[in-house]
Amino acid sequence: MTLITIPIRLKNEANSNKHWSKKVKDHQTQKMLVRAFMPSKPPSPPCIVLLTRHAPRPFDSDNLQMAFKWIRDELAGILLHHADGSRVDNDYRIQWHYAQKKTIDKEYFITIEIEPVPSFQPVAPFCPVYTLDSSKPSNDQFLLAE
Length: 146
Hints:
Layout: E1 2-6, H1 20-37, E2 47-55, H2 61-67, H3 69-79, E3 94-102, E4 109-116, E5 130-132, E6 142-144
Parallel strand pairs: 2-3
Antiparallel strand pairs: 1-4, 2-4, 5-6
Helix pairs in contact: 1-3
């Protein structure tokens, strides 16, 4: 297992009213810190990644995931060896998990745990596939394919 600790304070992106140029600078800083703290030879997929925010007050679950967006994007690029910044965080060989832990006042940092998985059966997110049911008289009757 690879454990990385990065001294950064994640902000609540959903409720931010910062100017777009300041947001871009924050995102670039997050990406630069991920690159700086990653080991020279990161593990290769398939793997499970746990992103943990350590802070005095918790975010709700959707804000937690949103706060890690730029870190996740950069980390996926490193793990999948995409230096061009292409979107690769939807690769099913990496499972993403999020957590948060309470710390003492004014102590902020994140940890990234990367656990290689030797035999991994990637599970696609549930996406129902519908097919036309020809046994029904109406052509607009759809059933969930099995």
